[in-house]
UniProtKB/TrEMBL annotation:
Coiled coil: none annotated. PROSITE patterns: PTS_EIIC_TYPE_5. Keywords: Membrane, Transmembrane, Transmembrane helix. The lineage of its organism: Bacteria, Pseudomonadati, Pseudomonadota, Betaproteobacteria, Burkholderiales. This is PTS sorbitol transporter subunit IIC. One of its GO terms (biological process) is phosphoenolpyruvate-dependent sugar phosphotransferase system. Pfam families: EII-GUT (PF03608). InterPro entries: PTS_IID_sorb. NCBIfam families: EII-GUT. It comes from Paraburkholderia acidisoli.
Amino acid sequence: MEFLTHAAEAFIGIFNAGGKTFVGFVTGILPTLIVLLTAVYTIIALVGEQRIQGLARFFSKNVITRYTLLPLLAMFFLTNPMAYTFGVFLEERHKPAFYDSAVSLCHPITGLFPHCNPGELFVWLGVAAGITKLAETNAAPFSLPKLALFYLGVGLVVNLIKGVVTEAITRLIAKREGIKL
C-alpha cells in the first residue's frame, strides 16, 4: 500500500513541477515574447509589407545573402513556421536550400530573438541555465548575450554552407532524374 502512495505522490509531483515551470514562464518569458511580437508587427506595419518583400527579393539574388540574411529576415519578421513562405521570392532550384537554411536557423536565432521560434526556447533556456550556473562559480567564459551572438553567427555560417551544399545536391539529383531547373 505504501508503494501506491509513493507512486501517486510521484505522479502528481510531475504535474506540480510542470505547473511551477508554467507559472515561471507566465511571469517571465511570456510577457517578453508578447511585447517582442508586438514590436515586430509594429515594425512591419510601419515599414510596410511591400518593402519587407522587396528586401527579401533583393537578398534572394546573391548566394551569400540567400542563405544567411534572407532566412534571418524571414525568421525575425515572420517567425516559425511562416518564415518558409519567403521561399516564394526564390527560383525553384533555390527553394530546397533556402528551406534547409531557414529551418536550421530556428535554434540559433532563439537566444537573441525568442519570438522567432518559442518551441526552441526550452533548449536555449537549458543552455542559458548551464552558463548562468557556471558564471556563479566564475567558470563561464563569457556572458549570455555574447554566447547568443556567437551562436547566431555560427548558425549563419553553417546555414551558408548547408545552403550551398543543398543547392549542389539539388542540381545533382535534378540532373540525374532529368528534371530541368
